[in-house]
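Justification of resources, computational component.

The compute hours requested in this renewal are based largely on the per-chain cost of generating structure records like the one below. Each record pairs the submitted sequence with a full structure-token output. That output is archived, and it is also reused by downstream analysis tasks.
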Amino acid sequence: MTHEPRGMHATLHFPLPECRTELMDALNTAQWQLVVWDMQQSLRNMLKWDELPEAEHALVELIQRKFYDICADRGIEPDADPPYMVKLAKPDETD
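The structure output for this chain reads:
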């Protein structure tokens, strides 16, 4: 009997109850991706469609730049649909 490769798989293990917070973070990743996407879209739409006074427009641009800087610092690509991590450690890399 031959086994065909099915692609990569990952299994996460969390010792409970001491790692409950980490488990919940892992389970809510999709929700956080949507938060990043919604925030990126909200800032973009405010700049593109809202008729803001010049000072407010400049402030939204500043907030948008800061948002992108924070995302870049964390290795997040906010323009992806949905946002995704752009830096993944190789299996042999350790902290």
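The chain has a mean pLDDT of 84. DSSP finds three helices and two strands in the chain.
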